[in-house]
Design a protein that fits this description.
It is built from five helices and six strands, in the order αααααββββββ. It is of the alpha+beta class and 184 residues long. Helix 3 packs antiparallel against helix 5. The chain starts with a helix and ends with a strand.
Length: 184
């Protein structure tokens, strides 16, 4: 009797395996078809990855090109800022008497200064011109000194030494300022 139950159990296991795995053997064509499907899936995956890499490279090169257009001349622009400063100082230093005597020279310097400003604007260079009494902004200003000045609050700009400049959305040079240190 135990032998009978054992045979039935083994027969049930055998039937269950046939249901799960099947009893049929694969033909050579089916195996080749499965191999071709696997190869197709692998090639499709590689192709999709290559396509994504190409798209990422295109986006990266577009971004690099835009940055080169906008910020490629920043070194030259930085080197021209002292020229602007010197022209401005020269015009500010000219007295009324000197302006009368050398009117043509002063006019030439003013025209040169205007042309420098126009070239700056054409290339996205904008001045940062803080006013006395404005709050010090460490993002755009460089504090050159602190001094207690009556009638001001701590952190107020009390003197502007040089203008700062932005190149599009980047700081090219901070404005150099003196800041009040009077406690509030």
């Amino acid at each position: 009797m135990a032998k009978e139950h054992e045979d039935e159990f083994l027969q049930d296991v055998s039937l269950a395996e046939e249901e799960e795995y099947g009893d049929e053997e694969y033909t050579e064509e089916e195996l080749e078809l499965d191999a071709l499907r696997a190869e197709r899936d692998d090639l499709k995956d590689r192709w999709m990855r290559a396509l994504a890499d190409a798209e990422n490279a295109r986006k990266r090169s577009d971004r690099d090109r835009r940055e080169a257009e906008n910020y490629g001349g920043s070194k030259l622009a930085r080197d021209l800022l002292p020229v602007y400063d010197n022209l401005k100082r020269g015009l500010e230093a000219a007295t009324d008497e000197q302006r009368e005597v050398s009117a043509a020279l002063i006019e030439g310097v003013e025209l040169t200064m205007r042309e420098v400003v126009n070239v700056f604007k054409k290339h996205g260079i904008e001045p940062i011109s803080p006013e006395i009494g404005e709050r010090f902004d460490p993002q755009n200003h460089e504090a050159m000194f602190e001094a207690p000045v009556p009638g001001t609050k701590a952190g107020d700009i009390i003197q502007v030494m040089t203008e700062g400049f932005m190149l599009h959305d980047r700081l090219l040079r901070p404005a150099q300022v003196g800041v009040s240190s009077t406690p509030t």
